User: What shape does this take?
Amino acid sequence: MPLAYRNVSELSAAAALLSAQSGARLLGGGTLLVRRVNEGDTSIDTYVRLRDPKLLLLDAAGETVRLGAGVTMAWIAREPALTFLAPVARAIGGPAVAAGGNLFAPSPYGDFGVALLALDAVISVEGTGGASELPAEAFFAARDNLAAGSIVTAVTFHRPPDGAFRYLKVSRVKPKGAAVVSIAAMVNRASGTVTEARIALGAMAKTPIRSHGAENALTGAALTAESIERAARIAPEETSPATDAIASGWYRKTVLPVHLRRLLLDMLA
Assistant: This one.
């Protein structure tokens, strides 16, 4: 069956097309979608390319950062105002993958979503039913069940204070292989006490997840080797990692505390 290709300039028109035509799919970077077609997925019959300029807006000048859905990993990696995110973007695939996005990549991929969880990002979604904004955690919980025609338009988050954000990706193929585990942490402190902690994990469940137990172990306490050890012990209990060609679920659970401990101890340096 031949594939159709539709160029659309307005988001509302793209949403209507995607909602009305079951075989239509929005074409972003194409990393996931084109692979599905090449592997024989006959449920897809139409690529929809949305060329709305607002999807290419990147606003990182102030304390609030807004990334349009068309902003690529390569763009983020070279943006001077986003140096704290550059290690995340650079760890995601080769040049072809970096020319796209990352929010819908399945585990053990999707590392950028891990960073967005730790940054408490808000995901903007528009469709035939209107516009909505979802906290990143709610977005990942609902990602596979969004209404037909839903289109992610942007992500928004507050710029982290200097030294408060860390990211670590563990992979067998360096530096850009699929993750054994990826970790992002946002830890705010005042007078030596942790006032807020967000610990996000990748490749430890079907989608990126928060480790609320580890966060609670840190919040309200001084960031010390002892509080870090408590958080590291708790984190695996909240995970359900898959066994795949990269690593077994048992191995992922075993190494998670080691790498979470290292990442948090780095904040003490």
About this structure: The chain has a mean pLDDT of 93.
